[in-house]
Amino acid sequence: MNLSNRRLWLLGAIGITAIIIITLLFAPANNKLNSGSTYNRSPDGYGAWYAFMSKQGTEVQRWQKPFEDFAKNQDAKPPSTFLRVYSSLITEVASDPEENWVKQGNTLVILGVSAPVTAAPFSSLHPDSAGEIKIDTGRRFPSDKNQILGDKFGAIVWKKTLGKGTVYFATTPHLAANAYQDFPGNYEFLAGLVTQSEDGLKEIEGTEQALAVNFIQNPINIQSQKKKVWVDEYIHGYKDSEIIKRESGGNLFTYLAKTPLFPVLIQGTIMLIVAILAGWNRLGQPVTISAPQVDNSEAYIQALAGVLEKANSTDFVVEIIGKAEKLQLQKALGQTSLESETLTNAWVEQTGRKAAELSELLRSPSQKRRISAPDLLAWLGKWEQIRQHLPSNRKEPK
């Protein structure tokens, strides 16, 4: 491997490593953790619902810190709503800090609570005044008086009262995901959950449809309630700079060590080191390559043949090869004379072949003339046939 090839290998390894790192750093965050995020524009994201709420004039803000910091936030004073859309189903419900915050008169909405799978169809439509609500899950929570949305198989959305506040739970994390933009009822329903005050949600006895109609049709009166809605983006990996600094201890290397990117950086560093070693050190003792032995005679013949071919000197080739073939024929027939007649008679006597086969080749042209390449090859082929029939080259039958 010469120097240029080593450099190519080195540059290729560095390029591949750079592509891997750049892809991981700048590729769209379309992983499971991003599911349910308002930054996500894919079908399982909530970007369209966030835009829907903003268009309605609802004050919606993203929260990118732990809940402990949110509970201490002066802007989160009652009445406020905190929405959590989990990327995957969770078994636990509201934690102690969350319950304490709710008891002060706030609302907590949790989408994606695990519930038993029932005989309910996976996809179902639930009537509502604002439009049908589409639910894609067969999971249902055992029905009780706190059911907000459900069917005969159980509750899909239900509530739990804590002190002055309320916690709403849903078995599906995709209640108002981007995939349901054609079902405005889903968006209106979640909007009602996060903006409805406790006084506005009146308990009525009756069917699920009556509950849903009352929940949506009962005046939400967002402006009068001044309820602020916060969406948890911290659980989706989005963090404020101060939180990143606090969690990483102010050290970028420490922060990267806690992320999946750290093993990739280690592998990339190893690949770079190996590429450098492969480029400048062959990982072994250098082997001296001996120069190939040159056959001067063969080299001379090949060079001469190239010159004759370019000069189209077929007459010279015929003359030289003809003399050499004639001399070899004399030796093979055991003759002392190079006379054509003598060689032809000995040829007929020893091989039993026709004299015309050889006499044509031994006949000397009256003058030198050039022949074409195909004719030259045919002439050489005839000499080959003559050699095959010589006594020294004939094979005895078995």
Using only CA atoms, what is the Rg? 47 Å
**Outline:** elongated
- Report the biggest beta sheet as strand number plus sense, adding barrel if it closes: 7 strands, mixed
Estimated share of beta-strand residues: 5-15%
Tell me the distance between the termini.
Answer: 54 Å
Helix content, binned percent = 40-55%
Give the total of domains. Answer: 2
Q: Give the spatial strand order of the biggest sheet.
A: 1-9-2-3-8-7-6
How many helices does DSSP assign? 15
The SSE string, one letter per element, is HHEHEHEEEEEEHHHEHHHHHHHH
Q: What is the number of beta strands?
A: 9
Q: What structural class should be given to the helix and strand makeup?
A: alpha/beta
Show unreliable segments: 197-225
Query: How confident is the prediction overall: mean pLDDT?
Result: 78
Using brief descriptors, characterize the structure shown.
45% helix; 398 residues; 9 strands; alpha/beta
3D structure, described in words:
By secondary structure, the protein is α/β, with parallel strands linked by helices. It has 2 domains: 32-238, no CATH class; 300-388. 45% of the residues lie in helices and 14% in strands. The strands form 2 sheets. The chain has a 7-stranded mixed β-sheet. A two-stranded antiparallel ribbon has the order 4-5. Helix 1 packs antiparallel against helix 10 and helix 13 runs antiparallel to helix 14 (355-362). It is elongated and about 135 Å long.
